[in-house]
């Protein structure tokens, strides 16, 4: 007999596409905080995020009467029509994260908007509302996710060691912290602060804070823009190449992504300047008109597709070539911006 799955089962299935390990939860929560206009975000995890993840922001907050709604699948405040899909400016838009996370863990949402007197706490366990109470809290949102996959044993087994899971999260938060240099981002692992950026808008300074002076030394600045695209980046002089591509970080419109076109553009840009098997360091922040890129390729939003591949590749490669030729120094960002 054919029947429609009940909501709980459907949500658990859908959750599998969005939430496959602690990293995906951290990613979705931090992206929500950024979309909410936060200027301060703290991420805390324990045991690689398996037992505890907390993301706190000072963003817009969620109105109390919409709290339960936020946890329904396809519930979003970010888009309305399918037309909106062609020019997405927010990191989220699918309305799947909170429902997916809540389906496979115990979640507590604590939030307060600017125009409400008190905040509230809403607890949802395995997709079911457990408790809702008023509570005093600062403006913004905190989401605590505990006991990930407690009700999906198959997934629970697939999580790796605490250190593997935490390394992925540290790696991701490091990357996002570079791009969002105007947001103070703090990362705490098992009670220890790993880093805290200053929120003053200086990406290069964040490379030094998040990685190290050794990584920052030997970088050149690249910048190029035209009407519909812009590249800003930090790339290594050809004499400081690496044996792998781990130091190549690509961003498109503020998303941390993997992208073959940008990868190829880096290779084109360095043609004949590097020995075989050596790779440059490249932190590339690429901005493109939202109509020229499709971000809705996969639920995890880790990839994008450019409508004009070759143009993008040439533009980036050219910017890198000019940067290498001119050996531009890294501009100093003064004060907060
Ligand atoms: P999406 O981000 O795709 O809209 P989510 O499931 O991640 O979907 O979130 C659902 C909605 O909950 C968001 O559209 C937003 O309105 C609200 N929301 C989630 N997290 C936050 C937050 N940290 N601050 C303010 N609003 C939030
Ligand atoms: Mg979201």
From TrEMBL:
A GO CC annotation given for this chain: mismatch repair complex
Give one GO term, molecular function aspect: ATP binding
- Keywords of this entry: Coiled coil, DNA damage, DNA repair, Endonuclease, Hydrolase, Nuclease
Which sequence ranges are marked TM in the entry?
Answer: none
Q: Does the keyword Coiled coil apply?
A: yes
According to its UniProt entry, the protein's GO biological process terms are: mismatch repair
Residues in DNA mismatch repair protein S5 domain copies: 207-325
Q: Does the keyword Nuclease apply?
A: yes
Its biological purpose is as follows: This protein is involved in the repair of mismatches in DNA. It is required for dam-dependent methyl-directed DNA mismatch repair. May act as a 'molecular matchmaker', a protein that promotes the formation of a stable complex between two or more DNA-binding proteins in an ATP-dependent manner without itself being part of a final effector complex.
**What family does the Swiss-Prot or TrEMBL record give for this protein?**
Belongs to the DNA mismatch repair MutL/HexB family.
Q: What is this protein called?
A: DNA mismatch repair protein MutL
Biological classification of the source: Bacteria, Bacillati, Bacillota, Clostridia, Peptostreptococcales
Q: Which residues of the full protein are shown?
A: 1 to 337 of 662
């Amino acid at each position: 007999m054919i029947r429609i799955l009940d909501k709980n089962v459907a949500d658990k299935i859908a959750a599998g596409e969005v939430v496959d390990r602690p990293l995906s939860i951290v990613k979705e929560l931090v992206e929500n905080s950024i979309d909410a206009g936060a200027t301060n975000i703290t991420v805390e995890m324990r045991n690689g995020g398996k037992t505890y993840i907390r993301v706190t922001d000072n963003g817009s907050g969620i109105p109390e009467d919409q709290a339960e709604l936020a946890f329904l699948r396809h519930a979003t405040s970010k888009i309305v029509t399918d037309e909106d899909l062609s020019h997405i400016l927010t990191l989220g838009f699918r309305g799947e994260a909170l429902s997916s996370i809540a389906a496979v863990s115990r979640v507590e949402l604590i939030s307060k908007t600017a125009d409400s007197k008190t905040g509230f706490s809403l607890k949802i366990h395995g997709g079911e509302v457990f408790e809702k109470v008023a509570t005093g809290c600062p403006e913004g949102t905190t989401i605590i996710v505990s006991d990930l996959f407690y009700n999906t044993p198959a997934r629970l087994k697939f999580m790796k060691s605490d250190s593997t899971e935490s390394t992925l999260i540290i790696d991701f938060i490091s990357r996002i912290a570079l791009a969002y240099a105007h947001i103070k981002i703090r990362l705490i692992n098992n009670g220890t602060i790993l880093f805290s950026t200053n929120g003053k808008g200086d990406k290069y300074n964040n490379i030094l804070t998040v990685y190290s002076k050794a990584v920052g030394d030997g970088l050149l600045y690249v910048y190029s823009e035209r009407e519909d695209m812009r590249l800003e980046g930090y790339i290594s002089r050809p004499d400081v190449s690496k044996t792998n591509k781990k130091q190549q970080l690509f961003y498109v419109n503020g998303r941390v992504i993997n992208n073959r076109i940008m990868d190829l553009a880096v290779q084109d840009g360095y043609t004949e300047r590097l020995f075989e098997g050596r790779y440059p360091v490249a932190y590339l922040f690429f901005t493109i008109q939202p109509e020229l890129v499709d971000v809705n390729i996969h639920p995890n939003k880790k990839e994008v597709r450019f409508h004009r591949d070759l143009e993008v590749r040439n533009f980036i490669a050219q910017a890198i070539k000019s940067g290498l030729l001119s050996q531009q120094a890294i501009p100093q960002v003064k004060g907060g911006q």
